[in-house]
């Protein structure tokens, strides 16, 4: 009886250790393109299906300067630049270099992308969850966020592009 118990414990320990080891090397992590894992997740859950503003904070400057634009062409160019990235979820972390906000100001929903390095992104997807109690005729609005850190595996961040984009935007006051 004790032998069976010890065998079961040994199997469970082996399973947990094996799962953790596989998880640490990324076997179970989400993989896909930036469009699939970030943009499509936002579009599937958000009430506002478009972005009407892009803002960038430069964490490399002394005073964390922030600039923005409501030009749809600028937003679309940025998205097409990032949508090509193949990404995999990771546990790595680092300091912020740039923070990019893609916002829908009507619904207050957004995607916040923190650039942590040449190939590291911390992404926060904020979408509106609406619950409706038809009996009481009450709607409840709640902003829900999903956070993930991704490693770019097919390319790297073009900091020249980000720098040019940043300085092409209007200064926030």
Automatic annotation (TrEMBL):
Record protein name field: Uncharacterized protein
Organism: Caldisalinibacter kiritimatiensis
